[in-house]
Design brief:
This protein has helices spanning 4-14, 22-26, 35-49, 79-93, 100-118, 127-153, 173-181, 198-206, 222-225, 257-266, 282-297, 341-348, 447-450; strands at 51-53, 59-61, 161-167, 187-193, 213-218, 242-248, 268-279, 310-313, 332-334, 366-374, 403-410, 421-426, 434-438, 456-467, 472-477, 482-487. It contains 13 helices and 16 strands. The termini are far apart. Helix content is 31%, strand content 21%. The strands form three sheets. Strands 3, 4, 5, 6, 7, 8, 9 and 10 form an eight-stranded mixed sheet that branches. Strands 11-12-13-15-14 form a five-stranded mixed barrel. Strands 1-2 form a two-stranded antiparallel sheet. Helix 1 packs across helix 3 (35-49). Keywords: Methyltransferase, Transferase. This is SAM-dependent methyltransferase. Residues 4-55, 394-485 form the DUF8157 domain. One of its GO terms (molecular function) is methyltransferase activity.
C-alpha cells in the first residue's frame, strides 16, 4: 500500500516549484512505487490538494480565483455528445435504429414520456425509455444548466474546485452542461444519484468528460442516498459537504420533493448553492415554486432566522417581511439549439398521415423554470423595497385605478402575441399574478423591454388595473410611466 501522506507532502512541497511529475515523486516514496500508482493516488487526492492533471500527466495547482462568466451561449449539443447518443442507439438496435420496429418503439416511448409529464403521471425508466429520454430531452437540458449557473458566476460564487451532487442525474444533460460550462483548469468531484436504467446512458455519456471531472455514480434513490429511508443508512453518502446540489428536472417526479430537497440543503456547504430547474410548463414550474417557498419559509414564518435557506435568484423577495402566495408560474427563455442528427433521423422516419406535421420528435426549445437557494443568506442582488417609495403588490387591490410606484423583479419575457408587451413581475409579497403592460414605449420606460429575466426594475407612476378575465393585476406602463433598471 502506498504512503499517501508522503505523496501529499511531496506534492505540497513541489506545487509552487514546478509541475508535479508522478515519476519524480515515486523516487521519494519508500519502496519506490510504480509511477502509475503515484499518478492514481494524486488523482484521488487532487481535489483536496487543489491540483489538476494536465494532458501530459503532470499536476499543477488550481487557481484560487472563482470561475468567471464564460459567456454561455451554446448553439447546438456538442458533436461528441451527439455521437455518443447515436453510438448507444446503434449498439442497441443497429445502424437503422430510427426505422422499422425499433424506430416505432422509440417514438412510442417518447410520446408516452411527453404524455406522462403533461398529466403528471409516474414515469418508469427502463432502457428504451432512457434512450428515448436522451433523444428528446438531452440537448435542452444540456443548455439549461449553464444559463442557470450564470446567476452564480456573475457574483464570483463558483470556485474552481467543486464538489457536486446531481440528484436524479438522468441521462446526463446537467452533468455535460456543467462540464462544458466550467473552465479547463477547474477540478470537479461529481456525484450522480440515479436509480433507474438511465445509468447505462449516463455512464456512456460521462466517458466524454475530461480527466479533471471525476465522476462517481450512485445507483440509489434520492431518499436512500440522503438517508431518508427509515431504518437504513445513507447509501454511499459522502461525509464532505457539497458546493452545489443539482435537481435537474426531477423534483416533479419525487413523492415528497420538499423533504428530499430539505435533506439536500443539509448536505450543502455553508456557502453552497441548491440549484433546481424544471420544464417551463405550468405544472412543473409551479411545482418548483412550491418546493422553493417551503424551503425558504422553513419552520418559521418566512422571514428572519426561521428560514432554512435564502432565495438567491430569480424570484427575489424584495420585502423582507413578506411571503408570496401567487401560483408563481415563471420561466426563462434562451435561444433555440440546432436540431441534433438523432432527433432529425427519428423524426424524418416517422410515418405520417396527411394532417400530421413534421417536428414531433424535435425538441430544441430552451425554456425553463429555475431556483437557486443558499444557506448563507446571499442573494443575487441585495436590494429591498421601501414603504416610503413603493407600494406592495400584496396591497394592489386598494390601488386599483391609482398610479403607484413599484419595485419589481421581471419574471418573464414578453408574453404578448404582438399587441401590447406583457411581462410577469413579482416583489415577493404578491398573492395574485401581476403583469406590467406596456401600452406605449418611451425613452423613459424602455428599460422594461431591455431588462433581462430576473432583473430588478423600479416602476414610477404605473397605473394599476384589475383584469377580470385573467384574475390578475395589470400595471399599465405608458407615456406617464418611468421604468429604471435597478439591477440587471
Amino acid at each position: 500500500m502506498i504512503d499517501r501522506t508522503a505523496v501529499r507532502n511531496n506534492a505540497n512541497y513541489l506545487r509552487n516549484v514546478r509541475p508535479i511529475d508522478p515519476e519524480e515523486i515515486a523516487e521519494y516514496i519508500e519502496g519506490t512505487p510504480h509511477p502509475a500508482v503515484v499518478r492514481e493516488t494524486l488523482r484521488e487526492e487532487a481535489f483536496d490538494l487543489r491540483l489538476r492533471e494536465r494532458e501530459d500527466g503532470a499536476f499543477v495547482p488550481v487557481e484560487e480565483s472563482p470561475v468567471d462568466p464564460p459567456g454561455w451561449a451554446p448553439e447546438a449539443l456538442p458533436e461528441a455528445y451527439a455521437f455518443a447518443v447515436e453510438d448507444l442507439l446503434v449498439r442497441e438496435y443497429g445502424a437503422n435504429w430510427h426505422r422499422g420496429e425499433s424506430g416505432d418503439e422509440l417514438r412510442e416511448r417518447v410520446r408516452q414520456l411527453k404524455t406522462d409529464y403533461l398529466y403528471e403521471n409516474e414515469v418508469e425508466y427502463d432502457r428504451v425509455a432512457a434512450l428515448g429520454y436522451a433523444i428528446y430531452h438531452l440537448p435542452a437540458y444540456y443548455a439549461t444548466v449553464g444559463h442557470v449557473l450564470d446567476d452564480l458566476t456573475e457574483n464570483g460564487l463558483l470556485d474552481r474546485t467543486l464538489r457536486v451532487l446531481d440528484v436524479g442525474a438522468g441521462v446526463g444533460g446537467p452533468a455535460l452542461g456543467l462540464h462544458d460550462y466550467l473552465p479547463d483548469d477547474a477540478i470537479v468531484e461529481y456525484h450522480a444519484v440515479e436509480p433507474s436504467a438511465a445509468t447505462d446512458v449516463l455512464d456512456r455519456l460521462l466517458e466524454e468528460t475530461g480527466r479533471n471531472f471525476r465522476t462517481t455514480l450512485h445507483e440509489a434513490t434520492a431518499e436512500a442516498f440522503l438517508g431518508l429511508d427509515e431504518g437504513e443508512s445513507p447509501a454511499a453518502a459522502t461525509d464532505d459537504p457539497f458546493d452545489i446540489v443539482i435537481f435537474g428536472n426531477v423534483l416533479s417526479e419525487l413523492a415528497d420533493p420538499v423533504t428530499v430537497a430539505d435533506a439536500a440543503l443539509d448536505a450543502l456547504a455553508p456557502d453552497g448553492s441548491l440549484v433546481a430547474f424544471a420544464p417551463a410548463d405550468r405544472n412543473t414550474a409551479v411545482g418548483l415554486r412550491r418546493v422553493e417557498r417551503a424551503l425558504v419559509a422553513g419552520d418559521g414564518d418566512g422571514a428572519g432566522p426561521g428560514r432554512d435557506a435564502e432565495m438567491y435568484s430569480p424570484a427575489l423577495r424584495l420585502w423582507p417581511d413578506a411571503v408570496p402566495s401567487d401560483p408563481g408560474w415563471s420561466f426563462d427563455v434562451a435561444p433555440d439549439l440546432a436540431v441534433p442528427p438523432f432527433q432529425r433521423r427519428l423524426d424524418e422516419a416517422t410515418a405520417r398521415g396527411e394532417t400530421d406535421e413534421p417536428g414531433e420528435f424535435v425538441n430544441v426549445d430552451v425554456q425553463f423554470a429555475y431556483s437557486i437557494l443558499r444557506p448563507d443568506g446571499r442573494r443575487r442582488v441585495d436590494i429591498e423595497a421601501s414603504a416610503e417609495r413603493c407600494a406592495r403588490m400584496a396591497e394592489s387591490e386598494r390601488h386599483v385605478t391609482d398610479r403607484v410606484n413599484l419595485l419589481a423583479v421581471k419574471l418573464s419575457h414578453d408574453l404578448s402575441e404582438g399587441d401590447n408587451a406583457l411581462y410577469r413581475v413579482g416583489d415577493g409579497s404578491q398573492a395574485t399574478d401581476h403583469y406590467l403592460v406596456c401600452t406605449r414605449e418611451t425613452a423613459l420606460n424602455r428599460d422594461l423591454r431591455e431588462a433581462d429575466y430576473g432583473s430588478v426594475v423600479f416602476v414610477e407612476n404605473g397605473l394599476v388595473l384589475w383584469n377580470e378575465d385573467e384574475g390578475a393585476y395589470n400595471v399599465v406602463v405608458d407615456d406617464e410611466t418611468v421604468v429604471d433598471l435597478v439591477a440587471p
